[in-house]
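Q: What would this chain look like folded?
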Amino acid sequence: MKTKIFLLLILIAPSLASALPRAQSTPGGVAVIPLDIPADSAKPSIIYNGRTVFGFAHLDGWYAYIGVPLNAQVGLHELSVDGTMIKFSVADKHYEEQHLTIKNKRKVNPNAEDVKRINSERSRKLTAKRFYSKTLLGPDFIEPTTGRRSSSFGLRRFFNGQARNPHTGMDIAAPTGQPIIAPADAIVREVGDFFFSGNLVYLDHGQGLVSLYAHLSKTDVKVGDYVRQGEKIGEVGATGRVTGPHLHWSVALNGEWVDPALFLPANK
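A: My prediction, written as structure tokens:
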């Protein structure tokens, strides 16, 4: 079996990055790997950690866009491309801590009935997060709503002094009722009211690129709807586990949450 090694952080020219996520090969980032396959060739089979990877053909050839897990080990990782193993490096990244006080203590320490509900919701959320469809609908993202970024991706979180999972999205503080729009063309894969996330929407943009919108006061779409970039999908709210009205926006690649900021221009 052939093996290729990319020891350095892979960067791409601005002309390639304008419509796709920026390269940041760190835990919770996006590793962008040139595949040395002509652009006019069929999409290769790209596998990372057992999951199919987003691939895109630029003028100079095919690239793999890999969602690096937040808990990924620093060092070399392997990617299979049509059976050839490619090694790429993942660099370290430090995420700050965030301490929040939640008034509804059940949202920090759920009771037995809450746990039953949370467990029943978990499989629905995981299915939506890992959804893979072959057709790429819209990789070029715009902001889903405007406002102050009140919480960044990757923060190590503490609720009422208790350690919890890292923050897997970008929080945008905005008033209740402010419109939320689809950042790119997509198919709606999940809509519902969930214990921690409140009212939420999952959008499938194709090839394992999935986005999540949580804590909504209102949803305007249903499962199976096709939405265009800029189309309203709901409104900002304060449902679920929150300290105030805001949009929690997450983006997944190959089933892994990655920093949504990488999908917006660097100055956003």
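The longest strand covers residues 186-194.
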